Amino acid sequence: MKKVVKFGGSSLASAEQFTKVKDIICSDIDRRYVVPSAPGKRFSGDTKVTDMLYTCYAAAEQDEDFSDKLAKIQARYNEIINGLGLTLSLDTQFEEIASKFAAKAGKEYAASRGEYLNGIIMANYLGYEFVDAAEVIRFNHDGSFNAAVTNKIMSKRLEKVERAVIPGFFGAEEDGTIRTFSRGGSDITGSIVARAVNANLYENWTDVSGCMVADPRIIRNPEPITTITYKELRELSYMGASVLHEDAIFPVRQAGIPINIKNTNSPEDRGTMIVEKTCHVPKYTITGIAGKKDFVAINIEKDMMNAEIGFGRKVLEAFEKYGISFEHMPSGVDTMTVIVHQSEFEEKEQKVLTEIKHLVHPDVLDLEPDIALIAIVGRGMREARGTAGRIFSALAHAKVNVKMIDQGSSEINIIVGVKNSEFETAIKAIYDIFVVSQL
Amino acid sequence: MKKVVKFGGSSLASAEQFTKVKDIICSDIDRRYVVPSAPGKRFSGDTKVTDMLYTCYAAAEQDEDFSDKLAKIQARYNEIINGLGLTLSLDTQFEEIASKFAAKAGKEYAASRGEYLNGIIMANYLGYEFVDAAEVIRFNHDGSFNAAVTNKIMSKRLEKVERAVIPGFFGAEEDGTIRTFSRGGSDITGSIVARAVNANLYENWTDVSGCMVADPRIIRNPEPITTITYKELRELSYMGASVLHEDAIFPVRQAGIPINIKNTNSPEDRGTMIVEKTCHVPKYTITGIAGKKDFVAINIEKDMMNAEIGFGRKVLEAFEKYGISFEHMPSGVDTMTVIVHQSEFEEKEQKVLTEIKHLVHPDVLDLEPDIALIAIVGRGMREARGTAGRIFSALAHAKVNVKMIDQGSSEINIIVGVKNSEFETAIKAIYDIFVVSQL
């Protein structure tokens, strides 16, 4: 068995967190490949090391003296090293960083050092081999990730390595130029490593006990999701749930490796398993709720619309012409509504409306802004009759006006449109009916 | 005040029915223009005069002796004439019909005589002027109705005529060749007359007390609809409610003339008012329910579908290419369902599926046949919160599985997809919750 374990910044913010991480890793001999982030915030108001590096490098770029700033960063690392009682010095590494900063080695190089240095400490602390990500993760010259070459190099490099630490977030071009993934990119590194070593499980350790049924900013202490399919996760992520980035899911999903989101501060919690398929019966009918504000509904009415073959296609063409992707298109007999992102639509509004008028000559063309969309997602909804009834009863009870409803035959997803101002009320009502009261 | 009154075949099937009709007409001096149908069935199992005419003419076309058949038709009319105690003979008319049948004057000519003769009797009985529809309703040589010319001729002809009977269902080309509307076309004649005389109301007298909230074949003695807007009616008609043909609504709607559906056998009933706009508060939250069976759902899944601008447009293009109009297109994030008529889709099925594959390369492409669509329509739904909740609770309670939901921002229409086999159960459940229990 091989497990790849990735730890987020808050899991590695201090020596205390490092000891928790070591306990976790040592409690399971299968946890052989470790992907650390850079040290995060130790307390609310603290600064992440990556942000300190950005600031420091910005000074270097302006030819200002950045030695104090760099010293503070080294102090952060030394605090960890000393806290762990290690006899490790990062002086050589910091000298190299100072000279590269002075030579303006680039923002991506600067940002990557947070993970790089943390990886060295982690390897030393665990007694694992340190494998520099620059050696095994390959980027193209245009900055895009080269999956095929990476997989080949990394598989080969790690083949004979029993246990290793590979820092997250960065890699390098063939000539050694450091490149980074978008921020939060350590998740991607973990996923790439899992695929390269053909892991049985990719554990993603963070500071929450998995994905939550609803957004904690709206629902206080929401229940965690124990098992979620990639498909459900994608629907929730798309609708605003912040879990893993698409790019972090792709390599393991492709290889059929499940992901387990775990909490470093509460390792006994099961966390969330993200899987391709499961016969695990969800605890609640719904797996999760997510939503986004600021959509606009374009209502089109035309007598005998339904008799006009090509009507819908022409309407969508008007949006496509101006590069606007539509989210939903519910329709009646002589009415059609197209839902799009307000931000995308606003500046091209008049052009699109003119195009629609020109293409289909509607009788009525109306706009309704400030619409929020809520996705209620769950593979359990397929089996449970009455899900829609419960949702809409709950919304009615909470005096929420439903502006739009959309449920296709996949039956794992119902989309509801409400006013922006009723968004939180609607989410609370749905959460209550399915999770709190379980009516 | 001018009212145009159209009477259906069952309202004019016998002398007894004629007396009811005269009472109705004489009870309101505004009922000045009368459009009769041909005599309908007097009892269950009886034959409509129009069908007798078709059979008779079919014999004539085969050069068979049709005199007996024609005599039976004249007997039907004489029964009415005698029953009303009129001193009217239709001998001249029947001689002309016999000679024209022998000369093979055409099916449309044959069919039209039912209304023509009934109009003559009605005019005689009421003491109104008889105006032959052949004189005032103009068809083009290709058989299409010529609205502009008709309106001009008819307005002029009726300008000085205080009270008239104009037979329904037919008109003529410029050279006098008789042409008919599709069957049920007397409704169209009434509408055209109402527009030409600029009537204040078009009364359409039939054998039911207006439009019903639901199909009487599914709901026993459904409640009538007192007031319905054209828009609501169109949605219900489209979804299978049999009320007036589109072509019968168009002329009066254009002229802003309301329609009143009334019951000859129960004239005191208010019937149904069909209007452009109304502030009449509906008795129930919903105005009506209608539905149709035999749709098929084409489910399309593709990862990252939502990121692909033009995806929906391309899918619709595949249907359009083969002349298939889509009914609904509910969508999730990575899923899209297209609902089409099974009968339209079946024979082109493989071509359309291949086209979809070619255009958008879906991950999954599934078909689900035998879907019924139900439209719950009502202008009152805009105001009443919780309509959707009531619908879906009722369906859940009736153990109906909801396959699809579609509600746009017009908010006067919710479309629900269920299995064909659960169609009647679903309609009953919805009718019960809104009309019977009014929960």
From TrEMBL, chains A, B:
Q: What class of enzyme is it?
A: transferase
- Which residues does the record give as ATP binding sites? 6-9, 206-207, 217
The Enzyme Commission number assigned here is 2.7.2.4
What keywords appear on the UniProt entry? Answer: Amino-acid biosynthesis, ATP-binding, Diaminopimelate biosynthesis, Kinase, Lysine biosynthesis, Nucleotide-binding, Transferase
- Write down the Gene3D superfamilies for this protein, in alphabetical order: Acetylglutamate kinase-like (3.40.1160.10), VC0802-like (3.30.2130.10)
Keyword Nucleus attached: no
* Pfam families documented for this protein: AA_kinase (PF00696), ACT_9 (PF22468)
| Biochemical pathway | Amino-acid biosynthesis; L-lysine biosynthesis via DAP pathway; (S)-tetrahydrodipicolinate from L-aspartate: step 1/4; Amino-acid biosynthesis; L-methionine biosynthesis via de novo pathway; L-homoserine from L-aspartate: step 1/3; Amino-acid biosynthesis; L-threonine biosynthesis; L-threonine from L-aspartate: step 1/5
Which InterPro entries does the record match to this protein? AceGlu_kinase-like_sf, ACT-like_dom_sf, ACT_Aspartokinase, ACT_dom, Asp/Glu/Uridylate_kinase, Asp_kin_monofn, Asp_kinase, Aspartate_kinase_CS
GO cellular component terms, semicolon-separated? cytosol
Metal-binding is among the record's keywords:
no
GO: which molecular function terms?
aspartate kinase activity; ATP binding
| UniProt cross-references to SUPFAM superfamilies, sorted A to Z | ACT-like (SSF55021), Carbamate kinase-like (SSF53633)
Q: Write out the catalysed reaction.
A: L-aspartate + ATP = 4-phospho-L-aspartate + ADP
**Positions with a binding annotation for substrate:** 50, 115
Please name the GO terms of the biological process aspect recorded for this protein, alphabetically.
Answer: diaminopimelate biosynthetic process; homoserine biosynthetic process; lysine biosynthetic process via diaminopimelate
Q: Which PROSITE patterns match?
A: ACT, ASPARTOKINASE
All residue ranges annotated as the ACT domain in the record = 376-439
Q: What does this protein do?
A: Catalyzes the phosphorylation of the beta-carboxyl group of aspartic acid with ATP to yield 4-phospho-L-aspartate, which is involved in the branched biosynthetic pathway leading to the biosynthesis of amino acids threonine, isoleucine and methionine.
Which protein family is it in?
Belongs to the aspartokinase family.
- PANTHER family membership: ASPARTATE KINASE, ASPARTOKINASE 3
Protein name per its UniProtKB record? Aspartokinase
The organism encoding this protein is Anthropogastromicrobium aceti
